[in-house]
Write a structure and sequence with these properties.
The structure holds three protein chains of three kinds. Chain A is of the alpha+beta class. Chain A is built from 18 helices and 30 strands. Chain B is of the alpha+beta class. Chain B contains six helices and five strands; from the N terminus they run ββαββαβαααα. A five-stranded mixed β-sheet of chain B has the order 2-1-5-3-4. By secondary structure, chain C is of the alpha+beta class. Chain C has eight helices and twelve strands. Chain C has a five-stranded antiparallel β-sheet. A four-stranded antiparallel β-sheet of chain C has the order 9-10-11-12. Chain C has a three-stranded parallel β-sheet with strand order 1-3-2, with helices on one face. In chain C, β10 and β11 form a beta hairpin. The radius of gyration of chain C is 19 Å and the shape is globular. The model of chain C has no long low-confidence stretch (mean pLDDT 94). Classes of the chains: A alpha+beta, B alpha+beta, C alpha+beta. At the A-B interface, α1 and α16 of A face α3, α4, α5 and α6 of B.
Chain lengths: 738, 151, 254
């Protein structure tokens, strides 16, 4: 069974990603990016570049409508810097030319003067009075406040109270495929081939920038060579489209790795301060949290990331009272954005560390402590909202307690080992504010295939396999009878973004919703052609069979049906599971996962290795078991990077890791075998019956690894990734240096 | 300068700047889209090819050094890769696939070198594949696929 | 006026030497070029590259009558890692090569290049075993150290690892992750009956080497730990050396 479609083609190199296979005569794009993190653009003179032989387009902010800005909740980002640059690597101008050499030469001919502005290099500084302002509105991009119950009184009542602070890394999605694409103009519009999670959203944005009707913009957004959220944000598409539309020639523009390391949106670093307490029996009473987020230079998904992080900061536990504050501050440190986990990873790691510290202090083992504090099946959601009940929580906790013991490690003077646990939940899909719901199409094509069309995208997660498996389970058909079209605006069915772990859920619900109306059309058509009543017919492999006669060939093949009846199309629309009743920034559907990790710590060097990882996702029965497994093992590796190896540091707004010689993605030698133990039981009346596996493995694996470090060292990490310096210091403080 | 080499068995004759990279010659001039550029400094393995039977990063191979060599890309592995591809499929070892051609080249050299019948040591497997970064899969399926092939 | 830098592939050693003589400083010897080309940028090198990768400098590995091992300067590292004679005679070298670059880079990169580069991990190991570099021309053999240029006038022919008579070798690299990483610390030691030779490099600093009596006089010589290096690197290097030496001392006791 394939986890992904096109596997052999991918391996043998015949698979085409979107920035490959450009038409003959395609121009080469190049970017001028800002060397400074914060500056006023005093002069930007492209005349010499424009007059260079072989140059077909040079574009700057002057070529973009002056009121055109991008973002989701907050629109603040121009596609090319306008008046000011706000981070190192921000595009200021772009060129399309006949060769890459000419394009690069033209970039070098652009004359510019930047007048440096004071650099805002930390979110705390950003919010100080007198800090340089990145935007006229000030440096506080967004904030979050929530409280429930009487926190102060509950802390008074606590038998044990602990504080913990955690700073999380700026993790870079760093997909192997770089951001880029090809744009092909026609006299009236453009075709844009570039990775996106949301082809329709990209289309409307590009159309509005170019002043074109949406129907004249075709967006092909998949397949994607890895994203993890990194290509969810609009990346280079507007610049690419602008170049092609200006040059009236096809253009290919692709970033190089150093450009990508500065330009691509990253996971937001969070500074999290937590205080939690429990009573003598070990019941969690109160939580106070203060969270400060380094948003980088533009809002992007920052406000949503902050909201999701704050919503998840209670993990799956029932606190009697909570008091939460979160602030998102603009800085000149690149741009934060969507990355698998979406704010929840940061806060879940912090709370799970704190829960272990408190459990230890209160004299409970971490598993029992989690078990007794789980939210009840029918409790409201973490922010008091109505949610879909989660009776699976205790089952996940039980499964975590029942994992087989690790194989013993040989005792060593040099190495310490430790085991850590985590149990987390995160909202799936978008909050009440949407975009929720989706459209799709079931069609019998003229060549006789039952085709599901949507704008959901394939990025390696196995969406197409999930669709195919769902079609096979829904209709009694053969592999050859079904098809799947994804990732573009072609079908005219906007399925919304493929993000927030919602792709599988949306595909499944669309096919379910379309099944009966689509079948009815097929049966009506077949009955008419065969001149028999509909209930005498049965749809099976290859076409329609008359019930009475057992046979191995259909009486009416799907292609004959299509030839006679024409294309049969059912437009499908589904509403969101999410309700505004829960609130614009809170979720309705939650996914749970537990994890166990083991680490080995080198007392000589302070280096930490992850030597074992178990994941227990409660996502119902997987539709594509191999793809689901892959989502979990991949999440484990990214969690390992988050905890142990990955960070993009900025010094005074300067990117410090510009390629893979200084930014360290885990190799095969770093990642242990990740064992996946799906907890397939969900409530029988669960309205969806499954949960998406895109993010939840990461959200559980990271806190488990962090807790394993804490357990080995008897000291909980305060910064991630865990620095070996800190490990040696912790050992020295305890007199455990070798 | 003029260079000649064989590419997947076919003789090639090209005029190049000696310091051009094999990545651009193979991908742009010879249509070998399997030779992916990702880091361009030899740290990710997406452009791994075989040069005289040994794996090499095309991004660290200058055109002048291609002269007189026998170059094989993922496109040219043919039947040598069949069994590996089957095991990778069964174990869900590949997701987005951008690292896949380079990985396949490394895998072929690893498995063809491993003495027949001798179980490949996990450490050796990790040594040989540490230069092929995969951001999607977490390597678990990959490791299972290889161990299944070598046992 | 210098001609445009280009690339030449000499026919043999004499040819290489005469090309270098005619170019003077405008030409440099190169081999795998894996590290060198990262410094060139898009413009290419500033000097003509005299590629010695294909020259016959003798077999990759040769066991001399004296018991020393002679390694060809242009031998690719991966070939050395898999060489049966290396595995038998210098197993610590073969094992350590796992942590130097990746397979693909080791297939290109040469032993000589790694030793002359100035940041190569092998320099630490080869300093500890007091390997000698033999250059063409006067046949002189030179120890590794700050006097060795990364762009030597003479062609490096071979590296001689002296015969080891019961010395124990240890070597370890600390990187940023478990494999394929630039090094933060490399330590190595060659411990004989009466003396030990230790070598250390902290990231960004030259290799430091000391001779010390064995059994050790503690504490370790401060000269090993570059003065202005980060305190963490010093501690980690110190712990690594102390740990390895203590293990050897324990074994000696037993």
């Amino acid at each position: 069974m394939n986890a992904v479609t096109g596997l052999e083609e991918k391996l043998r190199g015949s698979f085409r990603y979107l920035a490959e296979g450009q038409p003959v005569g395609t121009l080469h794009g190049a970017l001028l990016t800002s060397p400074l993190a914060h500056a006023t653009i005093r002069r930007l003179d492209v005349s010499a570049a424009r007059s260079l032989n072989g140059v077909h387009a040079v574009v700057t902010a002057a070529d973009v409508p002056s009121d055109f800005v991008m973002g989701t909740a907050i629109l603040d980002r121009p596609p090319l810097a306008r008046g000011k640059v706000r981070f190192q690597g921000e595009p200021m101008a772009a060129v399309a030319a006949e060769t890459q050499e000419i394009a690069n030469a033209a970039i070098a001919l652009i004359a510019f003067e930047l007048e440096p502005l004071p650099i805002v290099s930390a979110p705390g500084d950003a919010l100080n009075e007198g800090a340089a302002k990145l935007h006229d509105s000030g440096n506080l991009c967004s904030s979050f406040i929530y409280s429930r119950g009487k926190v102060d009184a509950d802390f008074e009542e606590c038998a044990h109270v602990i504080d913990h602070r955690l700073t999380t890394p700026r993790q870079v999605p760093a997909a192997m495929e770089l951001e880029g694409g090809i744009c092909i103009p026609s006299p009236t519009g453009i075709e844009l081939r570039a990775a996106t999670h949301s082809p329709f959203y990209t289309r409307s944005l590009i159309a509005s920038m170019l002043g074109l009707p949406e129907r004249d913009v075709r967006v092909i957004g998949s397949p994607i060579g890895g994203s993890y959220g990194g290509k969810e944000e609009i990346h280079i598409q507007p610049v690419l489209a602008l170049l092609a539309w200006t040059a009236r020639r096809p253009v290919r523009l692709i970033l190089d790795r150093p450009q990508s390391m500065a330009f691509a949106t990253t996971r937001h670093p969070f500074e999290i301060a937590l205080k939690i307490g429990c009573d003598r029996a070990g019941r969690l009473l109160a939580l106070a949290a203060d969270v400060l987020v380094d948003n980088g230079a533009y809002a992007s998904f920052g406000p949503e990331v902050l909201d999701t992080g704050m919503e998840c900061i209670q993990s799956a536990y029932a606190f009697r009272s909570v008091k939460l504050r979160g602030r998102l501050a603009y800085t000149n440190n690149g741009v934060g954005g969507a990355f698998r986990g979406f704010g929840a990873l940061q806060t879940l790691t912090a709370i799970e560390l704190a829960v272990d510290i408190l459990a230890r202090k209160a004299g409970h083992d971490p598993l029992t402590f989690r078990r007794i504090n789980l939210a009840g099946a029918n409790d409201p959601g973490p922010l008091g909202q109505a949610i879909i009940p989660q009776p699976e929580l205790p089952k996940v906790a039980d499964a975590l307690s029942s994992l087989p013991a690790w194989r013993d490690e040989t005792p060593s003077q040099r190495y310490l080992s430790g085991t850590g646990y985590a149990l987390v939940r995160k909202g799936e899909g978008f909050a009440g504010g949407g975009p929720n719901g989706a459209s799709g199409v079931l069609a019998l094509t003229l060549d006789g295939q039952v085709m599901f069309q949507s704008s959901l995208v394939e990025m390696g997660q196995g969406l197409e396999t999930t669709v195919r498996n769902t079609l096979l389970a829904t209709f009694d058909l053969d592999e050859a009878d079904i098809g799947c079209a994804t990732g573009s605006t072609d079908a005219g069915a906007d399925s919304g973004p493929t993000s927030a772990s919602r792709g599988t859920q949306i595909a499944l619900r669309l096919i379910r919703a379309g099944k009966m109306p689509f079948l009815e059309k097929l049966y009506v058509g077949a009955a008419e052609i065969l001149q028999v009543p509909m209930d005498a017919l049965r749809l099976g492999p290859g076409g329609f069979y008359q019930r009475m006669a057992p046979q191995n060939k259909p009486d009416l093949s799907l292609s004959d049906l299509a030839a006679s009846a024409g294309e049969i199309v059912t437009q499908i629309g589904i509403p969101g599971i999410e309700t505004m009743q829960a609130g614009a920034n809170v979720h309705t559907l939650f996914t749970t996962c537990a994890a166990r990790a083991r680490v080995r710590i080198d007392r000589w060097t302070g280096q930490v290795a992850c030597t074992g990882l178990d994941l227990l996702p409660a996502c119902g029965p997987p539709i594509s078991p191999v793809a689901f497994q892959g989502q979990m093992t991949g999440a484990g590796a990214q969690a390992l990077g988050f905890c142990l190896t990955e960070h993009q540091p900025y010094e005074e707004g300067t990117v410090m890791a510009s390629n893979f010689d200084s930014y360290f993605i885990p190799t095969i030698a770093d990642v242990p075998d990740v064992n996946v133990h799906p907890v397939t039981w969900l409530a029988p009346d669960d309205p969806v019956g499954i949960r998406g596996g895109g993010e939840i493995g990461l959200n559980a694996a990271a806190p488990a690894i962090a807790n394993a470090v804490a357990s080995a060292l008897d000291a909980a990490p305060t910064h991630l990734p865990v620095r070996p310096e800190w490990v040696l210091d912790a050992l020295a403080r305890q007199g455990r240096t070798p | 300068m003029r260079i000649s080499f064989t590419l997947n068995g076919e003789p090639q004759d090209r005029v190049v700047n000696p310091f051009d990279k094999a990545t651009s010659i193979l991908a742009e001039q010879c249509g070998q889209e399997s030779v992916k550029t990702s880091c361009a400094i030899g740290r990710c393995g997406a452009c791994t090819i075989l040069v005289d039977g040994k794996s090499a990063n095309a991004c660290l191979l200058i055109a002048a050094k291609m002269d007189g060599t026998d170059v094989v890309t993922a496109e040219g592995l043919g039947r040598r890769a069949d069994a590996i591809i089957d095991r990778l499929r069964e174990n869900g070892a590949i997701q987005c696939g951008y690292c896949a051609p380079g990985l396949l080249v490394s895998l072929v050299t690893l498995l063809e070198r491993a003495p027949v019948g001798e179980k490949l040591q996990r450490q050796e497997l990790e040594t040989v594949l540490a230069g092929n970064l995969c951001r999607c899969s977490g390597y678990t399926g990959l490791r299972k696929a290889i161990l299944a092939l070598s046992s | 006026m210098n001609a445009q830098p280009t690339y030449v592939r000499p026919a043999d050693v004499e040819d290489a030497i005469s090309i270098k003589a005619s170019l003077g400083p405008a030409g440099i010897y190169g081999c795998g070029l894996t590290a060198a080309q990262l410094g060139w940028g898009v413009k290419g090198p500033e000097q003509t590259i005299i590629d010695i990768a294909g020259l016959d400098l003798g077999s990759d590995v040769c066991l001399a009558d004296s018991g020393s091992m002679v390694l060809a300067a242009n031998a690719p590292l991966e070939r050395l890692r898999l060489d049966p004679l290396i595995s038998r005679q210098l197993p610590w070298f073969a094992e350590f090569l796992r942590y130097v670059g990746s397979t693909a880079t080791r297939n290109q990169a040469s032993l000589g290049g790694n030793l002359l580069w100035g940041a190569g991990d092998l320099e630490v190991l080869f300093a500890a075993v007091d390997a000698k570099l033999r250059f063409a021309g006067n046949g002189r053999a030179q120890s590794l150290g700050p006097t060795v240029s990364d762009q030597p006038e003479d062609l490096l022919i071979s590296i001689i690892v002296p015969a080891l008579q019961g010395q124990r070798i240890f070597v370890e690299k600390l990187g940023h992750r478990q494999a394929f990483s630039p090094s933060r610390v490399v330590v190595a030691g060659c411990v004989g009956r009466q003396s030990a030779r230790l070598a250390v490099r902290l990231a960004g600093h030259p290799v430091a080497t000391v001779e010390t009596p064995w059994p050790m006089n503690w504490p370790l010589d401060d000269a090993l730990f570059a003065g202005n290096a980060a305190p963490y690197l010093k501690s980690a290097a110190h712990n690594l050396l102390r740990g390895h030496l203590a293990q050897l001392a324990q074994r000696d006791m037993a």
